[in-house]
Design a protein that fits this description.
The chain is α/β, with parallel strands linked by helices. The protein is 39% helix and 18% strand.
């Protein structure tokens, strides 16, 4: 298939996907996968070469080919540790102030832009240079704490597993796993305290193989099983793997800076927005973050069945946390 830029009546840029075959394949990608597709598209549009090699393989093994035999003991340790995560989530405080629902509502989205001056002010409040991902997870944890009354606070975030590749490359695939941060209730009073608590958790994740373990554990368990058996088993696991964490915290994903990913196309973009992801049957909005020209963009996404008013409430809560830091 090929992509061509179109221009809407209001002057904004839109994309059209054209497939030469009557039965097109749907590609499931994460944020880095979408950035890779946009970068290659922009490079061809402007007649330049992509900055990294383009990988045709779309399997997870390619993303993890930097791991070697000496990593097996660490991987085994983190496989066992990943089994403990549902119990940590279960021990955290449930959300007793749910977001408004509307059974007839379709999905909706809203965007927040945090400029670089405000980011610098937040870092000054923390007293040090802070990783953007840790800062955002800390902000989300404070929002989550206001929706519950007791116990630790849970925030789920994604990790791009391409960091474990043997060499950097562009790949249009889904090579991300979901990791869990459990923040003590006493650390959710001030943003600086929440940042320190988040840093402890995310540092452990970066220095371990928790990301690959989360993704490969179900593959190892379900790999030999017949497909029909796995399909019957998944609904039984849905309450533990999906409903439990979402009933306590938020799903947050940070795509990262998209300037370089968009390549030469970035200079000609007037504004940018991410819509999605395609999720349903969850009881909380999803938060998608990306950086562009020094600002942080937060896309708030309400799945079908959730009122659009939920995003208004979430936006107010986020700004309250930022302004009170």
């Amino acid at each position: 298939s090929s992509c061509w830029p179109g221009r809407a009546l209001n002057g904004s840029c839109s994309w059209w996907a054209i497939s030469p075959r009557p039965r097109a394949r749907i590609l499931a990608t994460d944020g880095a996968g979408m950035a890779a597709a946009a970068h290659v598209f922009a490079a061809n549009l402007y007649g330049v070469r992509p900055v990294l090699p383009v990988e045709k393989r779309r399997d997870v093994v390619r993303a993890l080919d930097g791991l070697q035999l000496q990593h097996i003991p660490i991987f085994a340790r983190d496989l066992v540790a990943s089994l403990w995560q549902p119990w940590r989530v279960w021990a955290s405080g449930p959300r007793n102030r749910p977001y408004p629902q509307d059974t007839g509502a379709s999905c909706s989205s809203k965007q927040i832009v945090i400029d670089r001056a405000r980011i610098a002010a937040l870092e000054a409040q923390c007293g040090k240079r802070v990783r953007v991902n840790d800062l955002l997870v800390a902000i989300v944890s404070l929002v989550s704490a206001r929706r519950s009354s007791y116990g630790p606070v849970t925030v789920l975030y994604t990790m791009d597993l391409r960091r474990f590749s043997h060499a950097p490359h562009l790949s249009v695939t889904n090579a991300s796993s979901i990791l869990t941060t459990v923040i003590p209730r006493e650390a959710t009073e001030k943003l600086a305290d929440a940042v320190r608590a988040v840093e402890v958790e995310t540092k452990q994740h970066r220095e371990s193989l928790a990301g690959p373990a989360f993704l490969l554990l179900p593959m190892l368990l379900a790999g030999p099983a017949p497909h029909a058996y796995v399909r019957r088993l998944l609904p039984a696991l849905h309450p533990l793997l999906v409903e439990l964490p979402v009933s306590r915290g938020f799903i947050f994903t940070n795509v990262g800076k998209v300037d370089q990913g968009l390549g030469p196309l970035a200079d000609d973009i007037e504004d940018i927005r991410v819509v999605g992801p395609s999720i349903k049957n969850i009881a909380a909005p999803a938060i998608i973050a990306f950086g562009f020209r020094g600002s942080i963009y937060l896309e708030l996404f309400a799945p079908p069945g959730m009122s659009a008013a939920a995003l208004d409430e979430l936006e107010t809560e986020i700004w309250d946390v930022i302004n009170s830091a």
